């Protein structure tokens, strides 16, 4: 009896330690032709496909699978609501066709929503053909939308690889005989406590002030060390920018400065100035920020002028450091929706 209790306690401790000390998942991004994949730190993967690059009717198909054994793939479809005007009564009774075979009515009304859910049999019909050059069509008597399958196989194989399903019975592309006992386990979103800081800068250092050059050199040294791609003196050397300093606590400050500006985007450089060790240390957080407010760094950058694709970023101050809590892409620039149609997260977190 004592052995059984000890044995059970040991197994429980092992299970708990495996959960507590599980290696954090690093999210990935992957793109091939008309399809792309984003997997997050939770283990969830999202694969999105679109019409061909020069296709006339913008459309997108999203396939989502969580990490862990015996996880079904969920599917959604979206048609353009960006620059397209469809008579409301023409967007009803839309059906899904896979290789010209009718897979049934898509449940919902595209005149009311941009995105509708696919049924499980409809998703399964797509996956069954995922290793082939397959025709994926949405249509009714008025309109016809075609999702390209060019890149579908590569993206789903990458999903299988990330979730460690290759060779298992649950793989989407390279199935095998192994069970799913060793596939990637899902992890929860990590939690970050937001420690708010003063919203207004405590100091502005202008280019004509004595302290400017010394601070600029400090920031640029850190930028070079941290491989900042866009924040270099090639942009602002003929038009120096004001440096703003924000108080984080008694020994740490934040510095911001406009790093670059394009046709429809601009990026702030954001640096953490740390004097806790008695030595001035400087870290570039990002050169893609668009604002800083009360301990939150936020960035939003268009993929192109029409703003049908947007990258979003967020870092939160936890009292000692900035933690990235958001890395999101809205999907390829294919004209499906203003602001993008999907939320393809590489980093997911809960901010409290």
UniProtKB/TrEMBL annotation:
Instruction: Quote the InterPro entries the UniProt record gives.
Output: DUF1176
Record key words, sorted: Signal
Q: Where is the signal peptide?
A: 1-22
Q: Which Pfam families match?
A: DUF1176
Report what the protein is called: DUF1176 domain-containing protein
Task: Identify the species of origin.
Answer: Acinetobacter rudis CIP 110305
């Amino acid at each position: 009896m004592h052995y059984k209790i000890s044995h059970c306690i040991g197994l429980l401790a092992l299970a708990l330690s495996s959960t507590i000390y599980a290696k954090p998942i690093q999210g990935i991004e992957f793109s091939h032709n008309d399809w792309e994949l984003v997997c997050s730190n939770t283990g969830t993967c999202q694969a999105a496909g679109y019409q061909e690059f020069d296709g006339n009717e913008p459309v997108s198909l999203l396939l989502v699978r969580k990490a862990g054994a015996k996880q079904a793939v969920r599917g959604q479809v979206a048609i353009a609501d960006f620059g397209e005007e469809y008579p409301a009564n023409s967007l009803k009774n839309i059906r899904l066709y896979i290789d010209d075979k009718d897979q049934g009515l898509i449940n919902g009304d595209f005149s009311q929503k941009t995105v509708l859910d696919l049924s499980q049999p409809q998703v399964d019909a797509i996956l069954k053909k995922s290793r082939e050059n397959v025709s994926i069509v949405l249509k009714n008597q008025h309109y016809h939308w075609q999702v390209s399958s060019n890149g579908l196989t590569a993206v789903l194989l990458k999903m299988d690889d990330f979730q460690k399903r290759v060779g298992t019975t649950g793989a989407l592309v390279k199935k095998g005989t192994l069970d799913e006992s060793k596939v990637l386990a899902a992890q929860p979103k990590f939690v970050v406590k937001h420690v708010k800081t003063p919203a207004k800068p405590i100091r502005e250092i202008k280019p004509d002030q004595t302290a400017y050059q010394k601070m600029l050199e400090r920031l640029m040294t850190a930028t070079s060390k941290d491989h900042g791609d866009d924040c270099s003196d090639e942009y602002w050397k003929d038009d120096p920018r004001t440096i703003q300093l924000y108080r984080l606590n008694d020994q740490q400050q934040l510095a911001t400065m406009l790093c670059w500006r394009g046709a429809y985007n601009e990026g702030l450089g954001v640096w953490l100035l740390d004097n806790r060790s008695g030595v001035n240390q400087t870290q570039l957080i990002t050169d893609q920020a668009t604002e800083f407010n009360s301990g939150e760094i936020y960035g939003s950058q268009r993929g192109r002028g029409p703003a049908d694709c947007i990258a979003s970023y967020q870092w939160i101050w936890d009292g000692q450091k900035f933690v990235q809590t958001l890395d999101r892409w809205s999907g390829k620039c294919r004209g499906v929706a203003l602001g993008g149609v999907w939320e393809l997260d590489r980093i997911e977190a809960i901010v409290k």
